[in-house]
Amino acid sequence: MKNSIRDFWKMNGFYVSFGLGIVALVAALAIYNVNSRKSSQNQNINLNEPIESNIARMDSTKDMDLDTNIDGDLDVPMDMQQSTKNESVAVDSDRVVSGQNVADSSTERMGNTLFDEQEMGESIVEEIAAEDSETEGNEDVQETMADEVLSYAPIEGLTFLGMEEVSMPVLGNTILPYSMDTTIYFKTLGLYRCNPGMLLQAPVGTDVVSIWHGQVTDIQDSKEYGKLVTVNLGSGYEMIYGQLQDIRVSVGEEVYKDTILGTVAEPTAYYQEEGPHVFFEVKKDGTPINPLDILQLE
């Protein structure tokens, strides 16, 4: 038996080995092809499916942030998170009026005068903040303008001691007093803030007069105070009269006690609830002071 096997391998060993080599090569090629197919399939999945899942994740994340306003670490870029948060805030701000949700007043929103006034008050507050920011940013410009050549000749010898028997700009009750040390409530704006002057009640069309001898140094329009007339009394004193119309004087003009500067105008949007009045501000060396310190009835 052993001899026959040995003889068989001597005669056919080469062919058997060659056949086994062919089988091994075919098997190796088959395995290689299978692995190549799997690798190709994995590559297609990695290239295509993550893009779709990322888009779905981004959409679901945006919807979740807008609808539920959830804060947290989401798997999206920081600028995208900030954008969706800003959009959410914008949506929420449209739903809230003075701390109340629209759901509380949804049946009254259309044609609701109170809602319109509150919305106007919020808009006015934003304008105030914007004007304050712009004023702070333009200090250098204002200083430059102050150094420019005046378009009128300053009157020499103007003096004011603050103890003279002056006139009142108008005869009326005080709606809002001067208050720079503490805040007071402004009805139209719906907030507490300081007041650099005082509001004197007067009907529309009432004459507004200069309280003392001086010179008109500025006439301008203000969103908050309407038409403003500034009169220099000398010695560092300036009188500012606001909420005017029908201005009767011009810049550089000399005015006297009881000279009519203009008349009372309809109040600006900032003071609709307060009603018609004169805004009267007194400055000493550029700083607002209490007008009652110099207003003395004759």
Explained architecture:
The chain is an alpha+beta fold and 298 residues long. It folds into two domains: 97 residues; 145 residues, Glucose Permease (Domain IIA), CATH 2.70.70. It has four helices and 14 strands. The chain is rod-shaped, with a radius of gyration of 42 Å. The N and C termini lie far apart (150 Å). About 27% of the residues have low confidence.
List the helices and strands and how they pair.
Blueprint: H1 2-68, H2 78-95, E1 96-97, E2 100-101, H3 113-137, H4 139-146, E3 174-176, E4 179-186, E5 191-195, E6 198-201, E7 207-209, E8 214-222, E9 226-234, E10 237-245, E11 254-255, E12 260-264, E13 277-284, E14 287-289
Antiparallel strand pairs: 1-2, 3-6, 4-5, 6-13, 7-12, 8-9, 8-11, 9-10, 10-12, 10-13, 13-14
Instruction: Measure the end-to-end span.
Output: 150 Å
Quick one: CATH class of the largest domain?
Mainly Beta
**How many beta-strand runs?**
14
Structural class: alpha+beta
CATH architecture verdict of the largest domain: Distorted Sandwich
Return Rg in Å.
42 Å
| CATH fold group of the largest domain | Glucose Permease (Domain IIA)
Number of domains: 2
Helix content: 25-40%
Q: How would you sum up the global shape? A: rod-shaped
CATH superfamily of the largest domain: Glucose Permease (Domain IIA)
How many H/I helices? 4
Q: Beta-strand percentage?
A: 15-25%
Q: Uncertain regions: pLDDT < 50 for 5+ in a row?
A: 45-115, 140-147
- The averaged pLDDT comes out at 76
Order of helices and strands: HHEEHHEEEEEEEEEEEE
The biggest beta sheet is recorded as: 10 strands, antiparallel
